[in-house]
From TrEMBL:
Species assigned in the record: Hymenobacter gelipurpurascens
Entry-linked Pfam families: DUF4783
Signal peptide residues on this chain, from the entry's feature table: 1-23
Entry keywords, A to Z: Signal
Protein name, per record: DUF4783 domain-containing protein
Length: 132
């Protein structure tokens, strides 16, 4: 009896964790689609008022409008051949993030996207590209 109760608990716990991961993945779906389509304009819809962009360790903060132009330039130079998020998570404070693999025509990158709360909504606060 105790064994069945333990197995039921483990099953329910596993289902709850998988539902949480799916929910995080769905929250990042429009961002994934904008990146796949190399649309800086669509991506900018999810930018916080200030966005930190990093390319191989060179970090700078930009306004949302400036960040859109920086991403437009990046997409023009590194058109994505493929892109997908491979991991979703959250900080201890509940800030969601995702890690992805971005394969451009000339280079492959590991991409980190971190959200931040802006007026009760989650917006992109950080995008970090690191060459693999």
């Amino acid at each position: 009896m105790k064994r069945n109760l333990f197995l039921a608990f483990v099953l329910v716990w596993g289902l709850l964790l998988s539902v949480g991961a799916l929910a995080q993945g769905e929250a990042f779906a429009p961002i994934r689609n904008a990146i796949r389509g190399s649309s800086s304009q669509e991506l900018a819809e999810y930018f916080a008022p200030t966005v930190e962009l990093s390319f191989d360790g060179d970090k700078q903060s930009y306004s949302a409008t400036q960040a859109e132009f920086v991403m437009k330039d990046f997409f023009a130079k590194n058109t994505p051949a493929s892109f997908d998020f491979i991991h979703y998570g959250g900080s201890n404070e509940g800030t969601p993030y995702a890690v992805g693999k971005y394969a451009g025509k000339n280079s492959a990158y590991r991409m980190f996207v971190k959200m931040k709360s802006v007026g009760g909504a989650q917006k992109i606060g950080t995008i970090d590209f690191s060459k693999e």
